[in-house]
Amino acid sequence: MVYAGKRHGRWTLYTDSKAQPVAEGTTEVTLVDGDRVSVVTQGERDGKRFVGVDGREWEYKGTLWMAPEVSPSGSVALLIGEKEGEATRKRLIVNGVAVEAWDDLSWPPVFSGDGRRIACVVQQNSRSSLFVDGSIVTQDQYSIAHPTFSPGGRRLAYRIEVTGAEGVLGGAMVVDGRQSELFTRNVGWPNFSPDGQRVAYRAEKGDRQFVVLDGVQGPEFGTVCPRIYFSPDSKRVASIASDGRGPGSAGWKCAVDGTQGEVYEEIQDFIFSPDSKHLAYVALDRGKYRIVMDGHKGGAFDRAWMPVFQADSRKVAFGARRGRDLWWKVIDVPR
User: Fold this and answer.
1) Cα distances (Å, whole numbers) of residue 52 to 87, 90, 134, 287
2) For residue 119, is pLDDT > 90?
3) Phi-psi region at 251: left, alpha or beta (left = phi > 0; alpha = psi -120 to 50)
4) CA distance 185 to 187
5) In whole numbers, what is the pLDDT of the chain averaged over residues?
6) pLDDT at position 142
7) Omega of the bond prior to 108 within 30 degrees of 0, cis?
């Protein structure tokens, strides 16, 4: 257990009730829960401003534009604003090392899971570029969005919008530096599989949307939710779609491994079992909520939420309510 407390103007860090005074001049302490709890400190000492992580400190100049962003492994990124005449330029500082300044940059930046890589979108003269690991990898685009590292940090995917003489021509996904075909503008964010080998995203042509999985277009729908779900073993893929158009579409269904399920008013709280053999979600069915597992509907409730599988995938638990009665229900998973 880790927490920080302030008394008489001084911060103290407590780890399993063991007290450790925080460096003098610290005015703010933030705990970041990643692979472990990182202690982020900010303050001023001898007229110099600093940011620290787990006892390491870095001085910075300029104005701290946003709160520090800390990776799961404890790397820290700062967004610093610096005045240049009447304009303010933005600069990224990672672990105390500053890079060049730009007109603007997206925040927060994206860290890889191990904290060793970082990506963000920067703007210069109304054009966007992608900054990765200290250098520009894609530049002078109309728009760049959703930079995403694979779980192992080796792969990177992001969306771009392509322009021509007539304006925006459409959107494309760039994976490992290779650009997809051009779609209409509505391209979702990339979703990597847990093993990092597969990538899926929503795309659109005309008024039809679909999932692109490993570069191959799937069945077309009126609307596809941008979140794509992979099973823990990365072999199964699921998405939520509607034959209607737009957020208010009537009727949603789950598409799993190419097979479409029953239509419901809502679908939420999607989860695969740890062994990847089962799929559960909450469905709103004619005004009642049910747990749907492997396509089979459970009992009806006034509300149901958050199915969770047991570690051995033999049972599933979920919250449920009928009237004023609340349960944490546990049921067997069909074998």
Assistant:
1) 28, 20, 21, 52
2) yes
3) left
4) 6
5) 92
6) 86
7) yes
211 forms beta bridges with 202
Cα(121)–Cα(290) distance, integer angstroms: 42
- Of residues 326 and 186, more confidence is placed in 326
The structure tokens 């509607």 sit at: 242
For strand 69-70 and strand 10-15, is the pairing parallel, antiparallel, or unpaired?
unpaired
Sign of the Cα torsion 116, 199, 148, 122 reads: positive
What tokens appear for 170 in the block? 């459409």
**Which pLDDT band holds residue 248 (cuts at 50, 70, 90)?**
low
pTM here?
0.87
Q: What is the 3-state secondary structure (H, E, C) of the chain?
A: CEEEEEECCEEEEEECCEEEECCCCEEEEEEEECCCEEEEEEEEECCEEEEEECCEEEEECCEECCCCEECCCCCEEEEEEEEECCEEEEEEEECCEEEEEECEECCCCEECCCCCCEEEEEEECCEEEEEECCEEEEEEECEEEEEEECCCCCCEEEEEEEEECCEEEEEEEEECCEECCCECCCCCCCEECCCCCCEEEEEEECCEEEEEECCEECCCECEECCCCEECCCCCCEEEEEECCCCCCCCCEEEEECCEECCCECEEEEEEECCCCCCEEEEEEECCEEEEEECCEECCCECEEEEEEECCCCCEEEEEEEECCEEEEEEEECCC
> Which of 155, 163, 72 lies closest to 119 in space, CA to CA?
155
- Tens digits of residue pLDDT in 286-334: 999 999 999 999 999 999 999 999 999 999 999 999 999 999 999 999 8
pLDDT in tens, 122-141: 998 888 999 999 889 888 88
Pairing of strands 135-141, 237-242: unpaired
Of how many residues is the chain composed? 335
pLDDT band, very low/low/confident/very high, at 100 (cuts 50, 70, 90): confident
Q: What is the pLDDT of residue 189?
A: 95
Report how far residue 121's alpha carbon sits from residue 189's, in angstroms, rounded to the nearest whole number.
14
